[in-house]
């Protein structure tokens, strides 16, 4: 009995002195990778969108830190510079409006649908009643030009622009030349410049339309005839005076 116990104790002592079981490095790494790739370890991982968002904000943070380190005053100085740039851009945008895609008078005043001046006025009033000032300004300017064409003060030309119409009409109605050019600019700003018309701008063009209806054109032939008659009378008077002397 004593001998059996001694044998058991010696066996236990020998097993304690032996080195533990070891696994080579590469198989151990592979086993760990397989274990950690299991779904149970990744249930709370962020989504791909969250990872991309985090990467973006990290990039912004690095960019901001780099810019603030190069700006006098640090982060506060950078914020002041950015605010100043935003204010300048906003002021220019408000003052100049949306950049034009091309020259203001690069497109025709009318489309391919021939309508009378009365039709354009009715369309303008309908838009104005609904507060659609852009369309109201456009239609009222078209009414002005169509009315001048109907009165034979302008020749009918489909490709005419607002600026051209104002310049040609200003020669026949010189007292309204400035207002015609101003109305053409309003039309171009709304149609091609991206600006918004106002109620006041529409009423200015509508008043111009009414004034033009009551205006009489300056006839070039009549002016020339009057000038020729005056010159003839002056020549006759000088001739009679010379004969008397």
What can you tell me about this protein's structure?
With 245 residues, the chain is mostly helical. It contains ten helices and no strands. It has helices spanning 2-17, 25-36, 48-70, 74-96, 117-129, 133-150, 162-172, 177-191, 199-214, 220-244. Helix 6 packs across helix 7 and helix 6 (133-150) packs parallel to helix 9 (199-214). The longest helix is centred in the C-terminal third of the chain and has 25 residues, at 220-244. It is elongated and about 115 Å long. The termini are far apart. Mean pLDDT is 74; it is low at 1-15, 101-106, 222-230 and 239-245.
Question: Main traits of this protein?
Answer:
245 residues, disordered C terminus, 70% helix, disordered N terminus, 10 helices
Contiguous low-pLDDT stretches (5 residues minimum) are: 1-15, 101-106, 222-230, 239-245
**Helix/sheet category:** mainly alpha
Number of helices: 10
The percent range for strand residues is under 5%
Number of strands: 0
Shape: elongated
State the order of secondary-structure elements, H for helix, E for strand: HHHHHHHHHH
Q: Whole-number radius of gyration?
A: 44 Å
Helicity range of the residues? over 70%
Overall pLDDT score: 74
Distance between the termini: 180 Å
User: Which oligomerization state do the chains in this entry correspond to?
Assistant: single chain
